[in-house]
Amino acid sequence: MSGATRIELGDFSMNSEEADLYRKDGFFVRRSVFGPAEVAVLQRAVEHVVLAQTRRATGGTYTIDGNRYRERSGVTLQYEHYAGARTIRVIEPFHHLHSDLDRLVDDPRMTEPMCGILGCNRVALWTDKINFKRPREGSGFRWHQDSPYWSHVCEETGRLPNVLVALDDANEENGCFRVIRGSHRKGFLPGVDDATDLGPLFTDPECFDEADQFAAVVPAGSQVFFSPHAVHGSQPNGSAHQRRALVLTYQPGGRRMFKIDATRDAGPHRSRVDAFANSVRNSS
Q: What is the pTM of this model?
């Protein structure tokens, strides 16, 4: 990347204002953290991954509440929610599927704020997913908390903070990320009792006020750090533009990942600090 600046340790720590916002609202936003060339590298990597997964997508299919999923080599693919859909809406996990995405895990713009949120000197990856909202096709995500999804395998779900990285300009027309301010302070909230399998994983709307929602209208390259207890969701993409995002979930260092039986420690290690920026320079 022409004119790329050196990434230095200590430049990206969570500041006191962000810490207050995280405690009060359950999230904070950093705008335009990754530059256009860096975003382009991530976009290319994501499209490479989805193409490879589409070509390999044979066997391992199942449905839950009519929604189609596929498991292959430890990767879960979730398809759009209409009959016969072939468009992938979620890939989890993804970091090990492309070297540029794996390097992002160690970037201090990701790990240093997470160290502040968790109060740790080092962190590890818990899980990671790509959310796709293709133009005029991408479906919405109902209001939910992440912590109930993980409660059966993790005793400290409150220590699994997320960071969303926007790969496209996000706005209300293309289904930007939305989060309910202060909802994290209530801890686990009841799920929806609608006689479906997935209903209990969606948050009962009686337990929060949609008027408290924040729409993350942000440019590509921005980040949203948010609590695993924060109620969040999004609307469908009714626009002619993409809305892709990476969501990485961290945990204290030395702990195994959610879907992969291994530990992926993530820095801040100086040997890894420049890895992503250097990869961008070399690809430009």
A: 0.91
